[in-house]
Design goal:
The complex is a heterodimer of chains A (273) and B (389). Chain A contains six helices and 14 strands. Chain A is an alpha/beta fold and 273 residues long. In chain A, α2 crosses α5 and α3 packs across α4. Chain B is built from ten helices and eleven strands. In chain B, α4 runs antiparallel to α5. In chain B, strands 3, 4, 5, 6, 7, 8 and 9 form a seven-stranded mixed beta sheet that branches. Chain B has a two-stranded antiparallel ribbon with strand order 1-2. A two-stranded antiparallel sheet of chain B has the order 10-11. Classes of the chains: A alpha/beta (273), B alpha+beta (389). Chains A and B meet through α2 and α5 of A and α1 of B. The complex binds flavin-adenine dinucleotide. Flavin-adenine dinucleotide (FAD) binds next to β3, β5, α9 and α10 of chain B. The site of flavin-adenine dinucleotide has 20 residues of chain B, from β3, β5, α9 and α10.
């Protein structure tokens, strides 16, 4: 199976946000691989190996990112985990929106014809949750979002995808090629069944470590560099950021002296009951 | 807030992609595999026996070697790995130092092909644990005085003597014993397997320091080993000293990990805890202490980084390692003591890390050449006058 995985660098979600000139100031940001994308890489690797002998690849995983030269660090991290090759489409973060990203990935998919596109369900920066759906639309491919289970069925022609919904797990069958976005439980020990790894095999929870061997091997793996122009992408933003503001600081609460007063305030002031 | 390292001077810019990835792997490893259990091990005085194989699976053991299942890391990447491990605990870093720099390295550098094939891949996987026996009860800073002997009897050697303060001694499958041959009086290294008649170990109890590491006595009484147990290429005291240079290099980076853990812990504690009208961090004397820690850590990072680049360029001289070991261990110990102070009473419990690091670093101050000994090495280097015998 040939899998294309999209990855994005995001500022460390634990870092405090600073604003400058109506924008988020990212000059001192600590960049890291978006967590859900890391899960997508892990899922792709589990789909393309026999866990009893992971050194022998049974498929090919290409990681793709749009971004400046520094994104190479995150691509290298995915290669060190075990992805086979990478593509970086040169761009500045402020020149991208979900639509441009989806159209760019569409071009790459049409060029490379993967059997499956795996993506994180959203990126932790703006939590957009759009690119996968847009991409499936542009490609005219079936999509399954928020996957927490993936099972290869029908001899590799389709996937059974489990999605956690309020009432339980919804199972969907999608024909390949398809777009699948992953949720956090996709890295549970037995979330993926690829027909090659024994079904009772339990992976360690979470994405795999980049081992030192993997890191050394990643140095020699290719990272192809492209520009938006080479892919004939019109860089017209559909979404423009006008300004960014922090939510107003919360006012201090008050203490009520009786239940009666509480009910009264909820009814007359907050008007919620 | 999860640990993100200390980098006040954007020193990350001096690192390669590969070096950052190595650090990231071990940072996460320490968060997930070391820190959740280390307090317990420290309290019980036990070494986490699950770690050798886990470290082996990541390629961490003997990682600066090339071949025999070792990945061939460059010096700075290796140093950063040690830094992260010691952010977990000096005992874990000590285990990795001994395994890689003090046992695998001499086998790699001075061993026969047979010895390399037999030991290196299994040690790299963490399936076989090694220890390094140089120090004796009566010979610490001057190992040249060692009394352990190896008497030749035909194609065998009979080892006799006692080693003390040996990291991993009690859990080791193989001990590298340094002994003087009789009658020549030359220092040679012997690989003695656990279970060899006449070879026994006894763990040292009652330690205040490196409690999550095994420290042992090795006793050799009429212990007969074949000639093939001797490292053919290691002749004279220079051989074990060359191993120590490797290990000390790792310490130069390692202790910064402990120092950073202490600084981070103290900083966040001081920002949270209020005394008088403000957070501890708002008091001038407290700020002075925090700034002092950060300042020394930053200088230590630059020193270690430069040391690594010199090593990679093949230009590193042992006195430079001595200067860096001396400085970085000192400042790490000082950071740990300061952090312990700033944590107040909390600083004396194992709910917090500072006390554990502080106790651990006392060992690091002493082993691999005491602070004094490294001072005298640099002193001799710059003056031309040896203050030793
Ligand atoms: C936890 C731990 C683990 C260890 N692991 C190992 C191991 O795996 N393998 C191994 O072989 N050894 C190991 N050691 C031993 C360690 O290397 C020695 O403790 C160290 O070399 C110091 O020797 P000593 O303890 O005999 O102290 P001494 O040499 O007796 O020193 C005592 C004091 O005298 C000072 N001193 C000594 N000579 C001079 C001098 N010429 N000028 C000025 N001051 C001097 C020292 O600096 C120190 O302050 C370990 C030690 C510890 C604590």
């Amino acid at each position: 199976m040939k899998i294309l995985v999209t990855v994005k660098r995001v500022p460390d979600p634990e870092q405090k946000i600073k604003l400058k000139d109506d924008r988020i100031d990212l000059s001192a940001a600590n960049w890291q691989l978006n967590q859900f994308d890391e899960y997508a890489v892990e899922a792709a690797l589990r789909l393309t190996e026999d866990a009893r002998n992971p050194a022998t690849r049974l498929g090919e995983v290409t990681v793709v990112s749009l971004g400046p030269a520094e994104v190479q660090q995150q691509l290298r991290a995915a290669l060190a985990m075990g992805a086979d090759k990478a593509v970086r489409v040169d761009s500045r973060d402020e020149d991208l929106d979900a639509d441009i990203v989806a159209r760019t990935v569409e071009k790459l998919v049409r060029r490379d014809s993967p059997d499956l596109v795996l993506m994180g369900k959203l990126a932790a920066d703006n939590e957009g949750n759009e690119v996968g759906q847009r991409l499936a639309g542009y490609l005219g491919w079936p999509q399954a979002t928020f996957a927490s289970i993936i099972e290869v069925v029908e001899g590799g022609k389709a996937l059974l995808v489990g999605r956690e919904v309020d009432a339980g797990v919804e199972m969907k069958k999608v024909r390949l090629p398809a777009v699948v976005t992953v949720d956090l439980r996709i890295v549970a020990p037995q979330a993926i069944k690829n027909g090659r790894t024994p079904p009772d095999h339990a992976y360690p929870e979470g994405p795999r470590y980049a081992s030192l061997k993997g890191i050394m091997a990643a140095k020699k793996k290719p990272i192809e560099e492209l520009t938006l122009a080479q892919l004939a992408i019109q860089p017209t933003l559909r979404v423009r950021t006008v300004s960014v503001r922090l939510p107003p600081p919360r006012k201090a609460g008050i203490k009520v002296s009786s239940v009666q007063e509480l009910v009264d305030k909820l009814h007359n002031e907050a008007k919620v009951i | 807030m999860p640990y993100r390292g200390v980098d006040y001077f954007a020193l990350d810019d001096l690192l390669t992609e590969e070096e950052r990835l190595v650090r990231a792997t071990f940072r996460r490893f320490v968060d997930e595999e070391v820190l959740p259990h280390i307090g317990h091990h420290f309290r019980q005085g036990t070494f986490p026996m699950d770690l050798p194989r886990k470290l082996g699976a990541l390629g961490a053991l003997g990682s600066f070697l090339q071949g025999y299942g070792c990945p061939g890391l460059n010096a700075v990447a290796y140093g950063l790995m040690m830094q992260e491990l010691e952010r977990g605990d000096s005992g874990v870093r000590s285990f990795a130092s001994v395994q890689g720099a003090l046992v695998m390295y001499p086998i790699y550098a001075y061993g026969s092909d047979e010895q390399k094939d037999r030991w290196l891949p299994a040690m790299a996987r963490g399936e076989v644990i090694g220890c390094f026996g140089l120090t004796e009860p009566d010979f610490g800073s001057n190992p040249g005085g060692m009394r352990t002997t190896a008497e030749r009897h035909g194609s065998t050697f009979v080892l006799h003597g006692e080693k003390r303060w040996i990291t991993s001694g009690g859990i080791a499958d193989v001990a590298l014993i340094w002994a003087r041959t009789q009658p020549e009086g030359e220092v040679r290294g012997f690989l003695v397997e656990r279970g060899t008649p006449g070879f026994s170990t006894r763990d040292i109890e009652g330690k205040f320091s490196l409690r999550a590491s095994v420290t042992s006595e090795l006793i050799l009484q009429e212990c007969v080993v074949p000639e093939s147990a001797m490292l053919p290429g290691a002749r004279g005291l220079r051989a074990p000293l060359s191993c120590l240079s490797q290990a000390r290099f790792g310490i130069c980076f390692g202790v910064l990990g402990a120092a950073m853990a202490c600084y981070e812990e103290a900083l966040s504690y001081c920002c949270e805890r209020k005394q008088f009208s403000r957070p501890l961090a708002g008091h001038q004397l407290v700020q002075e202490k925090l700034v002092g820690m950060l300042e020394e850590i930053t200088k230590g990072q630059l020193l270690a980084w430069r040391l690594g680049r010199l090593k990679e360029a093949g230009r590193l001289r042992p006195p430079q390692i001595s200067l860096c070991k001396r400085n970085n261990v000192r400042i790490a110990l000082q950071c740990a003591r300061t952090a312990r102070d700033l944590l107040g009473a909390n600083g004396i419990t194992d709910e917090y890390q500072a006390g554990r690091h502080m106790c651990n670093l006392e060992s690091v101050f002493t082993y691999e050449g005491t602070d004094h000994i490294h001072t005298l090495v640099v002193g001799e280097d710059i003056t031309g006058h040896s203050a030793f015998d």
